[in-house]
Amino acid sequence: MYAIVRAGGRQEKVAVDDVLTVDKLAGEVGSTVTFPAVLVVDGDDVVSSAAALAGYQVTAEILGAAKGPKINIMHYRNKTGYKRRMGHRQPYTEVKITGIKAGK
Question: Which GO terms describe its cellular component (predicted)?
Fold first, then answer.
């Protein structure tokens, strides 16, 4: 059984015990978060209607914080002596999917 969930502006395919990296979430290590399901596939059954998906719940446990790769940004203007160098690392949260359940 797997589900497609919306996490951090993206859609991810998840199954139980998958470790997923999503945009930074508010919460402590060990706490539980829920993601809205977009599509659920259970064997041959595919559930995609919004009314049926309202009963499904995808739960995950926060494992910890992570950072993305370093991105170097360089601004340069010709003939003026202007140079500016910046860097960025996107903060992420690692979560482990603990369950996909049909609620109601």
Answer: ribosome
